[in-house]
Specification:
single chain; Methylamine Dehydrogenase, Chain H; alpha+beta; 4-stranded antiparallel sheet
Length: about 500
C-alpha cells in the first residue's frame, strides 16, 4: 500500500500534464515527508473523469462515429415509436369513422323506409280522395242525365273517368246512356288518344276512323282505328325527329317531315309501305322540315322548312317523286303551308309575321302574288276556305285573321275573327266550309260559323287538354275534328250536329 503511494509520488513528479505535476520542489518534498510519516499523500491515481477525458482526446474520431451511430439509433427509435403511435391513432380513427358511417347508413335506411311508408300512405289517401271525387262526379253525371243535360253529364263523366280508378266501372251506366244520347252523336271531345306525342295526321279513311300519331320518344308512327281505340299498325322510326305529318285526302299517302320528307303508302292501313323519301340529294331542304301539306288531288306536296323556303313536289308517281320548284322569300322559319281547293294557289306562313301567296298553276314556274301583313307576331298556320275566297291565319299575337281573296293580287285588309288568351297555333276549315276551327295555347279550340265568324258565329269551345293545342284538323268527311296538344294526347270531336 505504501509502496503504491511512493509509486504515485514518482508518477506525479514525472507527469507530462503540467497541471497534474507538483508545482514546486517543495511540494514534492512535503509529499515525500508525508509518505515517510505515514500520512496521506497528494499523489493519487487519475480520476475516472480524467481517464475518460484522456481516452476521448486520444480516440476522438472513433468516439465521434460512435456518437453519430448512437444518435441515429435514438432518432430512428423515436420516429418508429411516433409512427406506431400515429398508426394506432389512425386505426382508431378509421374504426370510429366506420362505426359512424354504419350508424348513418342505418339512420338513412330507417328514414327511407319511413318516407316510403309515408309516400304509400299519401298515395293511398290520394286514391281514396280520387275515388270519392269520382263518386261525386258520377252522381252529378247521373243527375244531369236524368234532366237530359247531356253536355253537363258528359263533362262530369269525363271528370270521373280522368280519376283513372278501378271504380270507373261504376260509370258504365252513365256511359251507356251517353252513348245513346244526342250528345254522343254531336259529341265535343268524345274520344281521347294517348299518343305520347303532339304530332298527328288525319282523321282519314272510311268514316274518318283512322288516325296517325307520332311517339316522341322513339319517332315511331302508330296507325289507329281511333273509334275503337285500337292500334292497327306501327311504322318504325326513321332515325330522325319528326316535326309534322299529313295524309292525302284520298287516304292513300302519309307524309312526315323531319330532316327529309318521308312517304308511306297506307292504302292497306294494317301494312304501310315505305315510298321514296324526298331527301336533300333529290332537291330537299337544307334545314329541318316544319310543315307539309297535300294538294286536294294528292298529286302535289308542299313542304316548309327552317331554311326559310317552301318546296313544291310532284308525287303523282310515288316511285319517283320530283321537286317542281323552290319558293324562297321568307325571312324566318316557314311554319305553315296550304293549297287552295283547286290546287292553283299556295299560301305560306312564317315566323317573320307574314303570309305569302303564290300562283302555282304552272308549278315549274310559280308566281308570287303578294304578301299579307297585319299580324304582330309569328304566323303559324294558314287554311283556305273550300270555295277559295277566304284565307284564315293563326298567329302568336293571339288572333285569327281572315283575308278576302277576291283579288289575290290586291288582298283587302284582314279582319280579326277571334282573340285568344294565349297564342293561336292552328286553323282549319271543315270540308263543307261551314266551320272554322281555331286552336290555341290557352288549351282550347274554338269552332266558328265560317259564314259569319266575326259576329255571332261562335258555335262551341272544345277544351280538356292540359296543355296548349298545337294543331287542329278536320277529317275528309267533315264529321270529325281532331286536335292535338303538348300534353301528348289527341282529342277527337264529332261536330256533325253543330
Amino acid at each position: 500500500m505504501l509502496r503504491g503511494d511512493l509509486d504515485w509520488i514518482v508518477m506525479k513528479a514525472l507527469e507530462k500534464d503540467r497541471d497534474r505535476r507538483y508545482e514546486t520542489a517543495d511540494a514534492l518534498a512535503h509529499d515525500v515527508d508525508r509518505f515517510l510519516e505515514g500520512e496521506m499523500v497528494e499523489a493519487r491515481p487519475p480520476s475516472l473523469v480524467y481517464r475518460s477525458r484522456k481516452f476521448a482526446r486520444k480516440h476522438r474520431g472513433f468516439l465521434g462515429t460512435i456518437t453519430v451511430v448512437v444518435l441515429a439509433l435514438t432518432v430512428g427509435t423515436a420516429v418508429s415509436v411516433w409512427q406506431a403511435v400515429e398508426a394506432n391513432r389512425a386505426r382508431g380513427s378509421e374504426t370510429a369513422q366506420r362505426v359512424i358511417a354504419e350508424e348513418q347508413e342505418a339512420l338513412a335506411t330507417e328514414y327511407a323506409e319511413q318516407m316510403a311508408a309515408k309516400a304509400a300512405e299519401a298515395e293511398k289517401n290520394l286514391l281514396d280522395a280520387n275515388y270519392n271525387l269520382a263518386l261525386v262526379f258520377e252522381g252529378k253525371a247521373t243527375n244531369a242525365l236524368e234532366k237530359n243535360l247531356y253536355g253537363e253529364a258528359w263533362l262530369y263523366t269525363l271528370a270521373a273517368l280522368n280519376r283513372r280508378l278501378p271504380g270507373e266501372r261504376m260509370l258504365q251506366r252513365s256511359m251507356e246512356r251517353l252513348s245513346d244520347s244526342d250528345l254522343c252523336r254531336s259529341a265535343l271531345g268524345s274520344s281521347i288518344i294517348r299518343s305520347e306525342g303532339r304530332v298527328f295526321a288525319g282523321p282519314f279513311g272510311p268514316g274518318d276512323r283512322y288516325l296517325a300519331t307520332l311517339t316522341d320518344s322513339d319517332h315511331t308512327i302508330t296507325l289507329w282505328d281511333w273509334d275503337a281505340h285500337r292500334k292497327l299498325s306501327t311504322i318504325p322510326g326513321t332515325g330522325e325527329s319528326i316535326w309534322c305529318m299529313a295524309v292525302s285526302r284520298d287516304g292513300r299517302t302519309l307524309a312526315a317531315g323531319g330532316g327529309s320528307v318521308f312517304l308511306w303508302d297506307v292504302s292497306d292501313i294494317t301494312n304501310p309501305r315505305a315510298l321514296v323519301p324526298l331527301t336533300a340529294d333529290r332537291g330537299g331542304h337544307e334545314g329541318e322540315i316544319s310543315c307539309i301539306a297535300f294538294s286536294s288531288d294528292g298529286r302535289r306536296l308542299a313542304s316548309g322548312s327552317q331554311d326559310r323556303t317552301v318546296r313544291l313536289w310532284d308525287i303523282a308517281d310515288r316511285t319517283g317523286p320530283a321537286r317542281l320548284a323552290t319558293l324562297a322569300s321568307h325571312d324566318d322559319l316557314v311554319a305553315g303551308v296550304a293549297f287552295g281547293a283547286d290546287g292553283t294557289m299556295l299560301a305560306s306562313a312564317s315566323f317573320d309575321r307574314a303570309v305569302r301567296l303564290w300562283n302555282i298553276g304552272d308549278a315549274g314556274n310559280p308566281e308570287a302574288l303578294g304578301t299579307l301583313s297585319g299580324h304582330q307576331d309569328a304566323v303559324t298556320s294558314v287554311a283556305f276556305s273550300p270555295d277559295g275566297k277566304t284565307l284564315a291565319s293563326a298567329s302568336w299575337d293571339h288572333t285569327v285573321r281572315l283575308w278576302n281573296l277576291s283579288d289575290p293580287r290586291d288582298v283587302e285588309e284582314s279582319s280579326v275573327v277571334t282573340t285568344f288568351e294565349d297564342r293561336a297555333w292552328s286553323v282549319a276549315y271543315s270540308p263543307d266550309g261551314r266551320i272554322l276551327a281555331c286552336g290555341s295555347a290557352d288549351r282550347t279550340v274554338r269552332l266558328l260559323d265560317a259564314g259569319n265568324p266575326a259576329t255571332s258565329g261562335h258555335l262551341a269551345t272544345l277544351s280538356g287538354h292540359r296543355d296548349g293545342v298545337s294543331d287542329v284538323r278536320f277529317g275528309t268527311e267533315g264529321r270529325i275534328v281532331a286536335f292535338g296538344s303538348w300534353d301528348q294526347t289527341i282529342r277527337l270531336a264529332n261536330v256533325s250536329g253543330l
